[in-house]
Each structure stands twice: as C-alpha cells, then as structure tokens.
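2 proteins. here.
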Amino acid sequence: MGNGEGPAPLTPLKGMILMGKNPKVFIDGKGGVVGARLYEQLSRRSDLDFLIIDPEKRRDVEERRKLLNEADLAILCLPEETAAQAVELVDNPNTRIIDTSPAHRTTPGWVYGFAELLPGQRQRIRFSKRVANPGCHASGFLSTVAPLVQMGMLPPDYPVSCFSITGYSGGGKDMIAEFEDPNRDPALAAPALYSLELRHNHLNEMQHIAGLEYPPVFVPILSDMYSGMATSVTLQNRLLRGTPTAQDICEMLQSYYQDQALVSVAPFGTQGPRLVSNTMANTDRLEITVCGREEQTLLTARFDNLGKGVAAAAIQNLNLMLGFPETTGLRVE
C-alpha cells in the first residue's frame, strides 16, 4: 500500500535538539508556490537552520547535490521527474527526505506522509528516512475512504466516485498569473471540470493507500478562488457492510479521528444548507462533514490545498521526523 518503512530507518533527531543544535533544512525548489509557502511558515521558527541556494545556481546540479547532502532534512518541492532525480543526488545516509511531488507516493521504501490516516502511520513517519507527502486531492479522498476500508465498512471492490473542487493556486505560478490577470478570459469565473480522460496523477495513491481494488472515478473541478479544497465522495449505503446510515458513518469517523489536532469531523446535521468550498482556506487543518440519510451518504473533506493539502502536511512530517511537537509552526485553531 505504499506505506512501508524505508531502509535503515533513523531515529528522530531529538539528541541534536536537546543539545541546542538546530537541524539543517534545505528546501529544493523554494522559488515555486509550494516551496515559497513552506519557507514562509518555517522561516519564522528559531529551532531550524536553513541552507539557502544562490538563486543563480538553483538549477546547478552540483550545488544542489552539495546542499542536499549537507542537510539533516531536505524537502523536495519540484516537478515529479526532477524530484526523482534529486533523490539520486543524495549519498549521505543521514539526509532524510520529504518529497512533495507524486514521484514516490506508492514507491516501496517510502512512507506515505499522512500521520492520522492509518494505524501506526505516525510512527512510520517518525522513524523513516524517506517520506512522500500526499497529493492535495488524494488527502481529501483518503481522509474519508481509507478509514472506512480500514474499519471494514467499505468493501475494497466498491465502485468509488469522487469529485474535488480546488483553488487555482494548486496549478502553480502560471495558473495564478492566468487567473489574476485583469484581462483574463471571462470563462475563468465559472468552475471548470478537468482531467477529463479520468487519469489524474493522484489516482494511483488514492487507490493503493486506501486499499481499493480499483481506482476511483475521479473528477477534479477548478474554481475561481485562490486556495481551498472540498473533496467529496458519495456512497450507496445498501452496498456497505452493515448497511449503515449517514449518521452511523459520521459517528464512526468521529471515533476514528478522535483527539487529532489537524483532522476533525463535524457533528452530524450541523452543516446548514450549503458547504462552502474555501471555508478552510488559510488554515492548516482538515475538516470532514458527513451529510445524507438512511440510504445515501455524502462525505466531504474541506481544507486548504496549500495547507493540509501540501505545506502543512510537510511541516507536520518534518516535526515528526526531527522530534519536534507535531503541530509546531502550524495553525491548529
């Protein structure tokens, strides 16, 4: 399922922290949207030291190799192929890596970086050398589907369908510029379905990390909002084990995520007539809302696509790997 331990895992760097020596962190790809968001949040902290590449050398392989191998922890904020190549540059056995790209999310030897998702996942992250950050759409999908499979309610062969509304910041600098251009195409004001061939690059992790036998039918929807995400799954309750109601499913998920600081489940029946997609924008949390009735259920995870969808997840993983309190530097409230 892509969440196995990495080779020769290290212990968290608690000894370094207790001795007053800050861990050295290198963000490879700090100039991109994700890298900039990460650096903005992490640079406020006094318990980390950063290795900063000369902007003129950011594409210099040897300079990147040097910094990657000097780091206690490297965060890759790179395109998929470049991230895979970056890992090959690391020969220091003590350099630990968080990859925010899709390159390693189901790769053997890499741990899937969603601490709350599966039993023991937090400890796997804590002691791993290689952690793959989840995809944003996948985070929302897995937050609702994986626990139901894990608890035996959702059969692994269930034909799952999912749609996910996202802010345009997930498309990077070019898409941000396109949406924020004063002379932009008026059509951008309307939500737009994309990945119409049904081969989105999050499908592999969505299927395998959830433990499904088949990939879901997944339709992402691009919206005219900078950030925010609402990922929804619909279920026919008669096809679930035990024929639960929507309220039963809500209560099971509340129990599953009980006492988690960054993932919560709203009380059943308190959502009002609408769920607004960007309610959790500018937060580092994910909130699940369960709607429906006896026969059918709607599961919706809302979060910031740049928050718990990527940067907050990476910071949470960094904290676990380096021995800091898990929510250090994150917006819990």
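next one coming up
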Amino acid sequence: MIKVLIVDDSPTVREGIKFLLSSDKSINVIGSLSSAEEALEFLKNNKPDVITMDIMMEGMNGFTATKKILEKYPIPIIIVSSCYNKEEIELSYKAIEAGAVSILPKPTVSPNCNLEAERELTNTVKAMSSVKIVKRRPMEKIKPIKEQNLVKPINLIVMGASTGGPPVLLTILSGLPKDFNVPILIVQHISKGFLESMVNWLQQFCKLTLKIARDSEPLLAGTVYFAPYNYHMGIDRDGKIFLSDAPAEHSVKPSVSFLFESVLNNYKNNFIAILLTGMGRDGSKELVEIYNKGHIAIAQDKESSVVFGMPGEALKMGKLTHVLPPEKILQQILFYCKK
C-alpha cells in the first residue's frame, strides 16, 4: 500500500483529495492535516511514501514546509495548487526549486469535475511513491570537456521532458550564455494552466528569450520555444514552427514523439535531441532513430532523473550518443554549439 499524507488548509479540498486517492485500492491516506506545522509534527512519528502539499496556507506556507521537510525526510512532495493565483504559482515553482517533484492543479469532486485532472493526481501519486529524491546540486563552473570527434555545426536543439522536467530545464537553460545562437524547441508535459507560469519562472534565471510557440513562427537564434498546451509542435520543410491539433500520442498532447519525428522528417541541418526525466515512453523510439540517422541523441541518466521512464525506455531500444546528468548535458550543448 502507498501511504499518503495530505496537507491543505481547506477541509473541502482535503476531503476531495482523500476521496479520490482512497478510491484506488493501492493507496492508503494515513493523514489529512490542515497546516504545515501539523505536518512537521506528524512526520516525527510517521513515514508516508508521498505528501500532497497545498502552497498557500495560514502560518507556514507550502514552499517553506517543503524546504523544512526535505531537510530531514527524503519524501516525494507533490504541490497541489491553484493555477489562477499568480502568487500561489510563484510559490509553487519556488517549492520545485526546493525539491518538490511535481505541481498539479487542485482537484474538484463534482458531477462536472475534470476526470483527466483527477486521474493525473492518482497516477502521479502512484508513480512518485517509488521515487528516490534527487538532491539539487549547486551549479558548478562549467569545465572544458575533452575534444571529441568533430561534428558539423549544430543549427537546432529539441528537448522533451515530463515529470521532474522543470528543475532540469532550469539547470540547462540558465547555463546558456546570452550570445548562444541556436534555437531550442521544448515539449514539457504540464497540467493545464501552468505552462505560462513555468515559462515566466524559468525566464527569471535565463539570459535567452523564452516563449510559447506560435503557428508558422520562424526560428530565431538564441530563442527557446515551448509547445503550447494541448497542441503538438513540429518543424515544417521551410524550417518554421507548426502547431497541430492531431490526436494525442502516448496519451499526451503535446508529444515529444511528434516533435522529434517532425524534425527527423523535415529538418535538413544538424541538430541535437535531448530526452529528460519523465513517465512513459514519449519520444523514446524517436530518440534512438535520431541517433541511427547520425544526429546527436542525449538522454538524462537514471541517477538524476525523478522518473527514469522516457530516457530509460530509449536506452532499452538502442544506442544513444550520451547518457548524462543535467549539468553534463549543459556541458555537451556548449561544446557542440561552440562557435
């Protein structure tokens, strides 16, 4: 049984989360508390496998609680937040910086509730129950890497990420210099309402321009484009971004597989493909195909991944150029894209 602690100052939300999680026979809610202070006391004598944490509470907020809990207990914390309150979203991403593994919208239990969001909460709790908490290491000065086989100039980078992706993207993107001149396309699986706030959060730490992609948009040097919610993103034969309302792939939309496949089929120049932490196998097969076609294919390693699903599946399917932690992925990007 997966033992879950719920922390939220709203009795209605606590009961709603408890009802949803308890409907799964593999989950046992061992505590439902109204404050962070109560949670810290509870953890002295109890060991949940997962904690769901509200972010805006009376007294200690969820960000501070996350920091304090993770200083003592290596327990996966899922932030359950409103996507309509700016202050709440900002604190939620600070909690991600502190080590929380995911942000999800608050569920609503009603006849008209969003069943997809409710399933996402249950599935994330189950997936996170076996996660080994990865300590966020401070960024080290980038060291030069040994000279490798010379490659042709890189004109594009494409990335895919799911659960655990935002802090990894922070590590990689914040390390790129302002004169970095290669466009980057990213698919990040994220709940409805949280994409714009994630991009704004990342932009605070990045020297490059980050934006949500638009249809028919030309690629600009040193710009990072994120696939919009519920639209696939690809590259057409003219080298422009296109958005598609095609069906979901691997039950997700946008899909990393869609992006990687479009670049393989339509992009004429050299590129790097990177697959980061996440559940499932979105992008896995295509990453191996990219390597087989002579391009650089990089996967995040198991030790640094919150969930070694997507990169792990790619490794099972074939060879890749590199399997690395985020800091060394950044190092390779800087090497391959050096002027």
